[in-house]
Every structure is written in C-alpha cells, then in structure tokens.
C-alpha cells in the first residue's frame, strides 16, 4: 500500500552537466560521456533504493531533453531545418526541428540504458518516454496532412520502442503528456487514441504523466493565468479512465487542482503528486501524509501511489534528495496510520 515512485527525472550531478539548469550541455563527450551518464544513473538508482522509493527510474540521466532524447535517433526528422514554434499554446518560443519525411525507427533508442538500469536494481523499474501528442507539440510538421496523422505515426514508432523495452524487463512504461492539459479538445479528439496506440500490446504496466510543467519561469507565469481552480484534468480524465492505460500521474501538492478530480479515474492506479517540484521549499513527511489523506477522500488507498508532481531535473541536487526522503517517509507514515 502507498508504494512510492517519482515522475521521472532527477538533477544531473555537476560532473555530468551544469547543475540546476534545464537542457544543460554535457560536460564530456564520446565514451567518457557514456560512462559519466551511467555513473550518474547508478548513483540515483542506489539513492532511490536507499531512501525507500519503491518503483525507481534512471533519473533520466541519459538524456538532455525529455522529447529530443527520443527523437534524436528517429528517421524522417530534419534537425537542420529549424522552425520557430510557440510551445504549449505559445507559452514559450523554441526553434524546433522539422518532420520532413515519414518517421521511422531504424534501431532501438533506449535499449542500452534500460539494460544498464535493469542490471543494477531489483526494485520495480519505470522508464519514461514522451507521449505522441507532446512530441507533436515539440516538433514542426513539414510532412503529414494533420498533427493528428503525425501523432499516430509517432505512436507507431513509440510502440515499437516500448515493446523492445518491455522485453528487457521494464515494469512500467510511462508516456509523458504535459500537452494533454493544454490542448484538451485535441487530447479528446486524437491525443488519447494516439497514446493508446503507443501503449498497445505492452506486457508491462503502462502509465501517463500529465502535469503543469517544471518550475521554470514560463510555466510559473502560465500557471498565474489559470485562475483559482485548475480544472483542465476534468476535461480529459473521463476519456483516460475509459482507456487501457493502467496508471495516471497528476499534480496535487501545492497546485490549484481540486482533489475531487481523482473521482473521475475510478478504474486507474493513481500516482498522486505529493511533492512540489516548482519550489525550493522542502515538504515534511507530515505534509506528504496530508496530501495522501486528502486523496483518500476520493480514491481507495490501495490505488494511491505517492509520487512527485513532475520531474526534478532543474532542482538543486541536495534538495531533490531531501524531497525523495520526505516522499518515502510520508508514505511510511500513511502506511502506519492506514495500512
Ligand atoms: Zn511533468
């Protein structure tokens, strides 16, 4: 009961990349970089185990960007043709690569990373991939008729990759879809179909992570425009509950999301965000317990998995460790009181 996990990413150690910065450049290259990434993943796997996190991740130490890390080895993308695009409904502008031909996976993308992580933990192991709709909000379409068509093509490619990873012993494959609560109509029209295509036929657990983003300035400003109550989840959860995805990861700690949205997911396991990643303030185990108990008003305890709101990549490393500790200790308090 109250098995803990994290959304996915953890800070990069200073010897791997510049700390406390999103998408920071690597500090080495070639075989030295490969080894440095493995060392960083190893440290985080063992830290999570030691602190008592039940389902661990590689902390996303092998990739710089959560979408481009996957796309880098996919055919059909022109990395030279940059298009300036307003990401997440123009929350911020980025020069993105352009799809100029059918997208194809010509070789395994994350296989070596998964083999490494699997070899170093006996805990349940979750691996994260970008969701098809969020990929389409992070890359320009210069080939497909519609964004929905492009999403379905990426879903096919993701499915091939996910099946390969499941065969290597991953216990949970999570698709990150922060775009879902920005484009709620598109999510209902084709985003959730594309997600199900990506997760089709996997013989491990499947999950979707839907958040309000890292604690970066553009996201903080956007959250300021969302009003007192954030009701985006309400528009997409009914269709997600009807989908074949097993687990849903959502923000709850310190967010303006009404906890009652959990009642829209009666058939899912819930990764309840009990750790805020957009603040340097450290939650106590009692704070974590409080959010778990709020969630229990709307969901059976045996479906609740305490989790972080989102990835912790941009946080200070010591703070991230302390937050993991509070997450595990808060879940332990909940088990003592309600187990
Ligand atoms: Zn997130």
Shape: globular
Low confidence ranges: none
Strand element count: 10
Discrete helix count: 11
Q: State the domain count.
A: 1
**CATH class type:** Alpha Beta
**Main sheet: strands, sense, barrel:** 7 strands, parallel
Query: Can you give the mean pLDDT?
Result: 95
Helical percent range? 25-40%
SSE pattern: HEHEHEHEHEHEHEHHEEHEH
Question: Can you lay out the helices and strands and say which pair or pack?
Answer:
Layout: H1 30-51, E1 55-56, H2 68-71, E2 74-86, H3 87-90, E3 92-105, H4 111-119, E4 124-130, H5 132-136, E5 140-141, H6 147-167, E6 172-176, H7 184-198, E7 205-210, H8 217-224, H9 232-242, E8 247-250, E9 269-275, H10 285-296, E10 304-308, H11 317-338
Parallel strand pairs: 1-4, 3-5, 4-6, 6-7, 7-8, 8-9, 9-10
Antiparallel strand pairs: 2-3
Helix pairs in contact: 6-7, 7-9, 10-11
The structure holds zinc ion (ZN).
